[in-house]
From TrEMBL:
InterPro entries listed in its UniProt record: Cupin_1, Cupin_2, GPI/OXD, RmlC-like_jellyroll, RmlC_Cupin_sf
Organism the protein comes from: Microbaculum marinisediminis
Keywords: Metal-binding
PANTHER family reported in the protein's UniProt record: OXALATE-BINDING PROTEIN, SLL1358 PROTEIN
Domain Cupin type-1: 5-131
Source organism, top-level taxon: Bacteria
One MF term in the entry's GO annotations: metal ion binding
Lineage: Bacteria, Pseudomonadati, Pseudomonadota, Alphaproteobacteria, Hyphomicrobiales
Protein name: Cupin domain-containing protein
Length: 145
C-alpha cells in the first residue's frame, strides 16, 4: 500500500470506511505502510484504557474539545490546537471527561497492523475480546487495576 494523490473529504473515510471503537467513531484519512491518520469523534465520558504500542509512535491533534491523556504517571490536558505525543513503548490512556464532544486527529507511524485492528474491533463491546484481538495486532492493553 503506497500513498496516492488525492483528497479524503472531511465527511468521508478511505473507501467509505469508518469504525465504532470503544464508543468512539474513527474515520481513516490516510493509510500507508509508513503512517496512518484517522479522525476521531470522542463523546464525553468515553475513554481508551491504558495500553502500549510497542512498534508505533502515536500522536493526537485536538481540533476541538478537551482530552486528558495519561502517559506513564503524568496526566496531560489537551485542548484545541494542542498535539499530544506518545512515543512507542509508553503506556498511555485517553479520556474525555470534559462534558462535551472532542474531535481529534490521531496518527501512528509506522501503521503496522492498526488499520486491520480497527476493522476487527468495529462494534465490539467485550473488553476481554478487545484486549485479545488488540494483542494480535501489536497493541497491548494493561489488565484492569
Amino acid at each position: 500500500m503506497s500513498e496516492t494523490v488525492g483528497i479524503t473529504r472531511a465527511d468521508e473515510g478511505i473507501n467509505g470506511v469508518s469504525w465504532t471503537v470503544v464508543g468512539q467513531t474513527y474515520t481513516p484519512k490516510l493509510h500507508t505502510e509508513n503512517a496512518m491518520i484517522w479522525h476521531a469523534h470522542i463523546p464525553s465520558g468515553t475513554f481508551v484504557p491504558p495500553h502500549i504500542h510497542p512498534t508505533q509512535d502515536e500522536w493526537i491533534c485536538v481540533m476541538d474539545g478537551q482530552l486528558e491523556v495519561e502517559c506513564g504517571d503524568d496526566v496531560h490536558k489537551a485542548g484545541p490546537g494542542d498535539t499530544v505525543r506518545m512515543p512507542m513503548g509508553i503506556v498511555h490512556a485517553i479520556y474525555n471527561r470534559s462534558g462535551a464532544v472532542a474531535n481529534v486527529v490521531f496518527g501512528v507511524a509506522p501503521s503496522r497492523k492498526l488499520y486491520a485492528l480497527f476493522g476487527e474491533l468495529d462494534g465490539l463491546t467485550d473488553p476481554e475480546e478487545l484486549a485479545r484481538i488488540s494483542a494480535l495486532h501489536e497493541v497491548d492493553f494493561l489488565p484492569p487495576a
